[in-house]
Amino acid sequence: MDPQIEEIQKVVDRQGAFVRRLTDEIGLVIVGQKYMVERLLIGLLADGHILIEGVPGLAKTLSAKTLSDAVQTTFKRIQFTPDLLPGDLTGTMVYQNGKFIARKGPIFANFILADEINRAPAKVQSALLEAMQERQVTIGDQTYQLPKPFLVLATQNPIEQEGTYPLPEAQVDRFMLKLKIDYPDRDEELKIQERMAVKDVPHITPVITPEEILAAREAVYNIYIDEKVKNYIVDIVMASRNPKKYNIDIEDLIAYGASPRATIYLNIAGRAHAFLQGRAYVTPDDIKLIGPDILRHRIILSYEAEAEELTSDDIVQKIFDGVEVP
Q1: Main-chain dihedrals φ then ψ at residue 175, nearest 5 degrees
Q2: How many domains does the chain contain in total?
Q3: Which contiguous run of DSSP H or E holds residue 115?
Q4: What is the rounded CA–CA span in Å between residue 108 and residue 149?
Q5: 177: domain CATH number?
Q6: 273 or 16: which carries more pLDDT confidence?
Q7: Start-to-end CA span in the chain (Å)
Q8: Mean of the pLDDT values across residues 156-160?
Q9: Rounded distance, CA 106 to CA 119, Å?
């Protein structure tokens, strides 16, 4: 093994020791949903926000709260509604004792669950997305930094669309990952019943500090990624924009390909995925496994694709099948 990678591996082993403790602790409450929990950890380690799509009752809120409790951080759940105002999120100036002071809103927490984000009007969505991007909030004439780590988990219900305000594509692009959560299988459903339909449900004990998460992020950014894997990432993104060049016959199915953010996020999330596996280097399999979550909300389908009842996941799969793996 390359001496440089050996050195990185030692750091990964040291900084990644908490991963097993964290997943074991979360597993006391969350049954199944391994995919969602792993992606939440990737978002946390890669400093990227997550959009979660799934029907009610699939433990989206519980997973976010459980992760927050295990990391010993502050957690706020914000229920997005049509009458919500930007100040309800970020905070506002209040008059007290003869002067105006800033009263901070619920956005000033480490973990934010933005429940049913598409139920809030554009101004509120914009306020949240600005905070996500800038990691700061302005109240009155003062700018306040948001705490570290800062992770937004936004949920959408794919079934009920009445009275919703769909997120514009440019805003959806701000989320590193978009997860699609499905129902548990029969065995998991039985375990959920046994564990949660009781008087005393399990409680989470903090097993890691925010400082350890920030140190792990440093290790993630130092993980080795070969030039061949970097080129593979670029080929994947370029194939979403110009599939004909890669002999993938889907040109009529894509209206717009993935943005440059996809390239950046594939790199960082690929490193975070390698870190969770205890590896000091990224493989093409890391990119394949994390790719659909990075790309599914960045590839805009054409009318032809919708007419054929194809999904963005179908198109992403065709791209990964068509691009040569290094």
Answers
A1: -80, 130
A2: 2
A3: strand 111-115
A4: 11
A5: 3.40.50.300
A6: 273
A7: 19
A8: 68
A9: 18
